[in-house]
Write a structure and sequence with these properties.
The strands form 9 sheets. This protein has an 8-stranded antiparallel beta sheet with strand order 24-23-26-27-33-32-35-36, with no helix packed on it. Strands 30, 31, 34, 37 and 38 form a 5-stranded mixed beta sheet that branches. Strands 3-2-5-6 form a 4-stranded antiparallel beta sheet, with no helix packed on it. It has strands at residues 75-83, 93-102, 105-113, 119-124, 128-134, 141-146, 150-155, 160-167, 175-181, 195-200, 205-208, 217-221, 228-229, 241-248, 252-259, 270-279, 282-293, 299-305, 309-315, 322-327, 337-340, 345-352, 363-368, 372-377, 383-389, 392-400, 403-411, 416-418, 421-422, 429-437, 440-441, 447-452, 459-462, 471-477, 480-486, 492-497, 502-504, 507-508. The protein has 522 residues and is an all-beta fold.
């Protein structure tokens, strides 16, 4: 998915239904979630003896470095959860996840319920997290956040998904887990399941009434079976119902050897497997509930891996997170699988203000599926450096007050990529409007305003908040075409801002998307 360059034309197209701007705040711009320890997206966690325990080597780099002992625990993320009619919601389960086990495997850092006024506050180590809000009878909400931020989250009424989970002989599976997943290209951090629910019975049926307003994938997992994934599911309204049938087979046995760059076998490497799918302009990965750890000879074995294209990731804390993509069609490999752990590459640069002066102490975040989040702070000269980054496209984000710049950086193995990043200058344009749900104003809701200023300058992102009457405004905008999104909703529209002019854009999250003259959804 790409935001358009700065030009006057319809803004948004959904690429093959895999990702929409409704998930941009949760994936692209957050640098993009439930239950203790690992997320419960894996069939019967307690019963799965294949999950290794020795993970002490992996370093969660989604936390900011700190020079003060104990200071890493002194931060908070706070917020409020609303229904779409503007009512604060009590008893909403809100969870924060990070990447403590592996860069593509979100794990829960904190979880609590909102109070009578819909408020929550979580004390967390200083870093970047994914926040999910969940309440029975409502769609889940999802947003990334850094410590120190305040977020607002909207829960809508959802349609339903009904289905059956069958084995290869079409017999019902009596015990299984259903997860609701957001699909994202590999240049984004891996989203956590929006919902995870266990089902037991004799007929293999399930029903979900907690689906978000953007396309999602339903995954079924069960002990001694490979996972199954639905095609993208999107419910247009609370009255919609979709039928889904998921068939679980035995899957494949995925064996291989982990080696270093000199060909030596590496023990104690955490290895997991993900299914790969075509998704719009790029492929996407889906965590496939299969994990292992290499032995003294570097050998690993993953049972019940998915067939087809599979991404195999390795983590040991001493090398860059490393990935090899293999084709498991027919459960056969063309040659023995070797996962080579690499040193990766580096990114260096200077964080700058719009006038070109350095930004000392600026907070910078890298995101990519294999690494989750990697955070650092610029020094007194605005200089920053990231090391041990896997080769490929990575998103770099600079945060300064209520403004962000996000840009793509391509990392090459063994090389240092130099890339400065600048907070975009202000202009004389303005956007203002009102956010409602079926005509009812929504107060205290965060709005994302973003435009693409090209490959070198990246995304220019700003975050106004609605007042008690649902009114928002953001001044100081340079001329250009902007996307305006109600954060944690699928509501996004485009608007042109001219120098010295005020553009008015009202957003009703209950209204259907507008249709352009060419019949495309904006």
């Amino acid at each position: 998915m790409h935001l358009p360059t700065n030009q006057k034309k319809p803004f948004f197209r959904s690429p093959a239904g895999w990702a929409t701007l409704g998930t941009v705040p949760a994936i692209v711009l957050g640098a993009f979630l439930l239950w203790p320890s690992t997320t419960p997206s894996h069939a019967a966690d307690a019963e799965d003896a294949s999950v290794p325990d020795a993970r002490a080597k992996y370093v969660n780099r989604g936390l900011f470095p700190s020079d003060e002992p104990g200071d890493e625990q002194a931060k908070t993320i706070s917020g409020r959860v609303y229904s779409v009619d503007g009512r604060p919601l009590a008893g909403v389960q809100v969870s924060a996840t990070s990447f403590a086990i592996a860069g593509n495997l979100p794990t829960t850092a904190a979880s609590l319920e909102t109070d009578a006024e819909g408020r929550f506050e979580m004390r967390l180590a200083d870093g970047t997290y994914q926040i999910v809000a969940n309440k029975p009878g409502f769609s889940p909400s999802f947003v990334p956040a850094q410590t120190g931020e305040t977020v607002s989250m909207l829960l809508t009424q959802s349609g339903r998904v009904r289905g059956r989970v069958l084995d290869a002989d079409r017999a019902p599976i009596p015990r299984f887990v259903i997860d609701v997943l957001t699909a994202a290209p590999d240049s984004f951090a891996a989203p956590t399941p929006l919902l995870s629910k266990r089902f037991e019975g004799t007929d293999g049926t399930f029903e979900l009434d907690q689906l978000p307003g953007w396309p999602v994938v339903v995954r079924a997992t069960a002990v001694d079976h490979a996972p199954a994934f639905s095609t993208p599911v999107e419910l247009a309204s609370a009255s919609d119902t979709r039928e889904v049938e998921l068939m679980l087979g035995d899957g494949c046995v995925l064996e291989g050897t982990v080696r270093d760059g000199s060909g030596n076998p590496l023990p104690d490497v955490f290895v997991d497997a993900e299914a790969r799918f075509a998704g719009g302009t790029s492929e996407v990965s889906m965590e496939a509930a299969s994990r292992a750890e290499s032995d003294e000879q570097g050998h690993f074995r993953i049972e019940h891996a998915p067939s087809g294209k599979v991404a195999v990731h390795g983590y040991d804390g001493e090398h860059a997170p490393s990935t090899v993509v293999v084709d498991m069609t027919g459960c056969k490999l063309a040659k023995p699988l070797e996962l080579v752990m690499s040193a990766g590459g580096s990114i260096t640069g200077v964080a700058r203000k719009g006038d070109g002066s350095p930004l000392p102490g600026a907070r910078l975040t890298l995101m990519q599926r294999a690494i989750g989040y990697v955070n650092t702070v610029a020094d007194e000269d605005g200089e920053f450096r990231f090391d041990s980054i896997p080769p490929g496209n990575t998103l770099l984000e600079l945060v300064y007050g209520h403004q962000r710049t996000s840009t793509a950086v391509r990392v090459q193995e063994g090389n240092v990529t130099e890339r400065d990043i600048t907070i975009h200058p202000t202009g004389k344009g303005e956007i203002r409007g009102r956010v409602t749900a079926g005509g009812t104003p929504l107060a205290g809701v965060k709005i994302l305003v973003a435009t693409n200023r090209g490959r070198e300058q990246g995304l220019d992102i700003r975050f106004p908040v609605t007042d008690k009457d649902g009114v928002y405004k953001i001044a100081g905008l340079p001329e250009g075409h902007y996307a305006v999104n109600v954060v944690t909703s699928a509501k996004t529209e485009g608007v042109q801002v001219d120098e010295g002019q005020v553009a008015v854009l009202d957003l009703d999250i209950a209204a259907p998307p507008k249709e352009s003259a060419r019949g495309e959804m904006e």
